[in-house]
């Protein structure tokens, strides 16, 4: 079964949506951008692997200081615990995609073993390998996408024994992806440093404390880095200063409360850490092109 997904984050910016059971840690969800607020999925991470396959429109994925414009018929692998964001490109009104989500237990069970060491660890432990693009313009790309199509069919029809078919198709996809990435020099031996490991605790701190008064030193302390390094990480990784991201996060949370609760605009502003209604309204208009009241009314139509 493929279920329609509703994107949700916990208080640490970790994705809550899990389409699989612990007994069979692999599943598929369907995403439609028309169901999201502001045509984007904000910065988040998840402790599992993800393969996104675009079925309509286009989407930009921002991962580890890189931008990937994905079009219909293309796929993107996202490594576990990598901070990323999705946004519609200018001129694209709607995007839909399937997301195959699975964790390493799908390949190697609950314990360390030979398969994990040989096939999973080289991907997970390579901090420079955050994402991999699969396009149908090469023989390898066509083959990998064909595995995805067969998995979609298995999850939709659920014939007897489909779980074994999914395991086989995903196993072939995985090894072919590793082989292609190595050929391209993207999956080299050894560990690579990345701002990702510093960004996650700082993003998590903001998600945990956005209702409170936060200063730059607080955000930097979450990752045990200097304020200068904190500012550099945010500027390089998400192209905002730490305080700009804090306000961005607060505004996004406020937009969700405006849609899903009946709280007054003043109550929502204070709930999201804004104690000046005029400042809140000004930042909100900058993000959404309208004031909070107009936004709420437009979303209720």
UniProtKB/TrEMBL annotation:
Keywords, ordered alphabetically: DNA-binding, Transcription, Transcription regulation
InterPro entries per the UniProt record, alphabetical: AraC-bd, Homeodomain-like_sf, HTH-like, HTH_AraC, HTH_AraC-typ_CS, RmlC-like_jellyroll, Tscrpt_reg_AraC-type_HTH
Keyword Aminoacyl-tRNA synthetase recorded: no
Q: Name one GO molecular function term.
A: sequence-specific DNA binding
Q: Which Gene3D superfamilies match?
A: Homeodomain-like, Jelly Rolls
Domain HTH araC/xylS-type positions: 200-298
PROSITE patterns attached to this UniProt entry:
HTH_ARAC_FAMILY_1, HTH_ARAC_FAMILY_2
Q: What positions belong to coiled-coil segments? A: none
**What PANTHER family does its record include?**
ARAC-FAMILY TRANSCRIPTIONAL REGULATOR, HTH-TYPE TRANSCRIPTIONAL REGULATOR EXSA
Could you tell me what this protein is called? AraC family transcriptional regulator
Which organism encodes this protein? Candidatus Blautia faecigallinarum
């Amino acid at each position: 079964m493929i279920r329609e997904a509703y994107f949700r984050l916990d208080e640490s910016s970790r994705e809550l949506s899990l389409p699989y059971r612990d007994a069979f840690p692999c599943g598929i969800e369907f995403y439609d951008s028309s169901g999201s607020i502001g045509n984007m999925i904000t910065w988040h991470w998840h402790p599992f692997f993800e393969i996104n396959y675009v079925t309509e429109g286009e989407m930009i994925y921002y991962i580890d200081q890189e931008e990937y414009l994905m079009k219909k018929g293309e796929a993107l692998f996202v490594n576990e615990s990598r901070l990323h964001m999705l946004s519609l490109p200018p001129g694209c009104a709607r995007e839909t995609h399937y997301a195959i989500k699975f964790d390493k237990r799908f390949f190697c069970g609950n314990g360390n073993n030979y398969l994990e060491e040989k096939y999973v660890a080289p991907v997970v432990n390579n901090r420079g390998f955050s994402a991999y693009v699969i396009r149908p313009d090469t023989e390898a790309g066509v083959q990998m996408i064909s595995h995805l199509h067969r998995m979609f069919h298995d999850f939709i029809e659920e014939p007897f024994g489909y779980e074994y078919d999914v395991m086989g198709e995903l196993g072939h996809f995985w090894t072919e992806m590793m082989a292609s990435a190595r050929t391209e020099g993207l999956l080299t031996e050894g560990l690579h440093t990345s701002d990702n490991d510093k960004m996650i605790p700082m993003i998590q701190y903001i998600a945990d404390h956005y209702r409170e008064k936060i200063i730059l030193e607080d955000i930097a302390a979450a990752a045990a880095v200097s304020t200068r390094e904190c500012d550099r990480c945010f500027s390089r990784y998400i192209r905002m200063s730490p305080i700009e991201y804090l306000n961005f996060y607060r505004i996004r949370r406020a937009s969700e409360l405006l849609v899903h609760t009946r709280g007054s605009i003043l109550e929502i502003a204070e709930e999201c850490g804004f104690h000046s209604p005029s400042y809140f309204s000004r930042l909100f208009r900058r993000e959404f092109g309208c004031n909070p009241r107009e936004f709420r009314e437009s979303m209720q139509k």
